[in-house]
Amino acid sequence: MTRTTSRAGVALLTVLAVGLAGCGTEKTSTAPAATTAAAVPVTTAAAGAATTAAAATTAAAATTAAAAPKADMKAGPGMSATEIKLGVITDETGTYAALGKGTLQGLNLFWDEQNAAGGVCGRKVTFVKRDAGYDVQKAVAAYNEIKDQVLALQQQLGSPMTTALLPQIDADKMMTSPVSWASNLLASKYIVMAGTPYSVEMIDGIDFLMKEKGLKAGDKVGMIYANSEYGKNGFLGATIMAKARGFELLGEAVDSKAAEATAQMSKFKDAGVKAVLLTHSPKMTASVLPWAVANGLNVPFLGSNPTWDPEFLKGPAKDALVSNFYVAQSASTFNDAAAGPTKVRDLFTKKYPTVEPQNSVTFGYGQANIFFQILKKACDLGDMSRDGLAAAFLQMKAIDTGGILSPIDYSNPGQPPAREVIVASPDAGAKGGLKQLTPLFSAPEAKAFTLDKQAIPVATTAAPATTVAPTTVVPVASS
Amino acid sequence: MSEIVAERLAVTAMVTRLASGPRRVSRGPLVAKIVLVALAALLPFVAGRSWTSVCVLALTAAIGAIALNLLVGTTGQLSLAQPFFLVVGAYGYTLFASQPVKAIAGQSDGSLGFHLPPLLAAIVAVIVAGILGLAFSPISSRLRGIYLGVASLALVEIGQHFIRSAKNMTGGFTGRDVPPLNIFGFVAKDETPNPTFLGHALGKSERLYLIALLLLVGVAWFTNNVIHGRPGRALQALRDNQTSAAVMGVDVRRYKAMAFMTSAMIAAVAGVLLSQFFGHLVPDNWDFDLAVSYLAMVVIGGLGSVSGSILGAIFVTFLPFVMNRYGEHIPGVISGSSTSGFATPGQLSALIFGGAIVLLLLFEPGGLAALFRRVPRALKRA
Q: Is A144:A167 a contact under the CB 8 Å cutoff?
């Protein structure tokens, strides 16, 4: 009898011990974000020369006049006189580990270089990195763990994780750069989307098919899209193009976790489609392309950027993938000849000589560059608090990443920040596995595209809980 | 031959167990427990802020693990349906507590909501989980072992389908905001500025931690009583040998159904807490992986033990975070932007996790609970 109770006592003791080991170690950053974000004057070591050197990498937004940081600058959390801490919540062990690894290498390449040149605002940038393993629960917990230690999130990998975090991101005013191009994220004014949303990406991709691959008005086009926000985004782009260019779109929504669509493909073949669009998973790509080859459906396939996986080139479907598959994305490929990607490639081979390169490295470098330019702008404006970052972010009208990413304009919140893409095709000979076929371009429809303003009706809070009519809603007046 | 002997031994053990009276708790350890819980309650205030939400996750996982252990460990019913009942708790609470939003053409699809007081909404969600658990009883009370495991997987898929398709209730892919829990005026949300307690902010995470701790104590106490009381002995009899349990007068199907229902309700409590932890629910969390991680907690902690469930939950929840934070200091672990090393902190945590399961199953099948039971014995011997 007493044994069981003492057992329980010992167990509880251990609970406490383990808990203390976890909880008891952090004593430093105890103030809530709101108070830390308030004005704290920080005197900085003058490092004007360093900042000008930093500006060399960026053609635009380099206002050399304000190179020296102001003495009475407002500072946000995670900042000291010599250091700025940025959060990175990535995936090194989960579904998108390859993507996480590549983008992180890109981030490191940029900031290592930039820190060597003096950092930003006279401070070196360091990461507080957490591996959430593409798990919503871990990502939310990791965010809460680091949110008071960092100024902003340099990377937050994954649409579901970022979507779950959106209310907190807004509440904490946490500037966040997601590895995701889902347009629902644009509803937050703290989301720094590094590239073209899926809908616009699809519009541009179809433009490529019509210009280069013989697709014309009156043709039938099949589309397999995921039954998710991502899939719907791509389908929206295709619908807009079908209407504008006069082709017939046969859309098939398929569950986002499904790995085959044989029935839908048969339907497309019988209908005589002239092209197939994919906004689904890499698994789906790896299953429908071999099917098309085996069944004589010899038409071009165009995929949104997540439909491609470098592993394809090692698998049995390799030959089927090389011939007919095109992928549209807003970041240049790793082996592109433009100045920006070439620089990334050189830095990569120097730093990671034994590592096999991935296309996402280039994207990661561009993502870091965007963040750097926002931080620099905020520094120039003399306000590095989270509010200051948000204000600087809205002023970023034309971010140039040297041909790495589509030109970016953040001055119109809620709308796509970028509208250009490149089209590439798989090539086992190319470093990173993709051969870039076009420079960055955008279709007229992409330039004209606007996302519907997400007018969110506000429920009346005045009605007491006891009234029988809690359904009264006051819609926000929309223009 | 040996089978018959084993059967007899089992029956004898069962008779002794069923015949033994209610367990008495001596006063000393009870006081110790109260002190420990009180200390645990002070934890977020004496320690730092950044780990509080991981602690909340651990406490929540502990409640979920206790629920699963009641099924897997005590009753011997393998269930993978844990994510489903977490979904019922989380989304059920959100649905019952939210205000409805009317559909407006071109602006909003509208969403359902019952606008119940949060505490009532939580209770209703837990009751709904109980009803659903009971509705599953024609299956859960007939099947056992791996068959029930596979059948319960269907519930996970149903949950996933429900979340993704019933958009006006769940928000679909983009998800839905969760109204803060309000327990008699103690609201689980941040205020500006937060009141302070012992010099530390009493924000959303701290409040949730206290609520979760309170619920964990309640659930642990309840489950402990169930396990060590008459129903618990009946359940264990069922686990050890269904036929002999039936011979002893245990209503097999009824007890199995009750165990499944109770477990579902406790899991829903964890679901309500998880919804608070998230603040915004998205579909991608509640899948098969979650079921496996709960199973891992139960196996690592120790089958059939409440304290084991708690230990297992803490181990599984904390391991990746501790590794991420301090793993870089371990020699051979990749740190910063360097490439030298055999694993990233995350990979190391996965390795330790896998290794712990293998080692425990080989050398101490009773899990962490049994491992820690050895400590006082070893101390006595020394």
A: no
Helix (H) or strand (E) holding B354: helix B345-363
B95-105 mean pLDDT: 82
Q: Are A425 and A408 in contact (CB under 8 A)?
A: no
CA-closest candidate to residue B105, choices A228, A413, A452:
A452
Report residue A44's pLDDT band, with 50, 70 and 90 as the boundaries: very low
Contact call for residues A21 and B53 (beta carbons, < 8 A): no
Q: Strand, helix or coil at A174?
A: coil
B366 touches chain A (CB under 8 A): no
Interface pTM, i.e. ipTM: 0.86
B54: contact with A, CB 8 A cutoff: yes
pLDDT digits over A413-466, tens only? 889 999 999 999 998 888 888 999 999 999 999 999 988 744 333 333 333 333
- Picking from B17, B321, B335 by the largest number of A CB atoms within 10 A of its own CB, the best residue to mutate is B321
Give yes or no for B279 touching A (CB within 8 A): yes
Sequence-distant (6+) residues with CB within 8 A of A387 are A37, A173
The top-scoring range by mean pLDDT among A6-15, B58-67, B297-306 is: B58-67
Phi, psi of A244 (to 5 degrees): -70, -35
Q: What is the dihedral of CA B161, B167, B170, B171, to 10 degrees?
A: 120
User: CA A57: distance to chain centroid?
Assistant: 22
A10, B281: Cβ pair inside 8 Å?
no
Q: Do B321 and A16 touch (CB under 8 A)?
A: no
Listed in sequence order, the residues at least 6 apart from B333 whose beta carbon sits closer than 8 Å to its beta carbon are B327, B341, B342, B343, B344, B345, B348
Tell me the per-residue pLDDT of A258-277, one tens digit each, with 9 for 90 and over. Answer: 888 999 999 999 999 999 99
DSSP B241-268: -HHHHHHTT--HHHHHHHHHHHHHHHHH
Pairing of strands A301-303, A275-279: parallel
- CA distances B278 to A165, A173, B188, B271, Å, are 8, 17, 12, 10
CA distance A138 to B367: 24
Mean pLDDT of B14-39: 67
CB proximity list for A356: less than 8 A, separation 6 or greater: none
Calculate how close chain A gets to B123, using CA atoms only, in Å.
17
Mean pLDDT of B32-39: 87
pTM more than 0.90: no
Which residues are paired to A79 by β-bridges? A84
d(Cα A146, Cα A168) in Å, to the nearest integer?
13
User: Taking all residues of chain A, what is their mean pLDDT, rounded to a whole number?
Assistant: 81
CA A54 – CA A68 distance, rounded (Å):
12
pLDDT at A345 over 80: yes
Higher local confidence (pLDDT), B376 or A163: A163
For residue B357, pLDDT over 70 is answered with yes
User: Cα–Cα distance between A33 and A386 in angstroms, integer?
Assistant: 10
Question: B95 burial class (0-12, 13-18, 19+ CB within 10 angstroms)?
Answer: buried
Contact predicate A226/A465, CB 8 Å = no
Nearest to B310 among A11, A31, A164 (CB): A11
CB contact under 8 A, B308 and A137: no
A318, A428 Cβ separation under 8 angstroms: yes
DSSP string, B87-124: HHHHHHHHHHHSPPB--BTTTB--B------HHHHHHH
Beta carbons of A268 and A222 less than 8 angstroms apart: yes
Residue B284 has what pLDDT?
87
CA distances from B363 to A8, B302, B356, B367 (A): 21, 12, 10, 9
Neighbours of A355 (CB within 10 A): 14
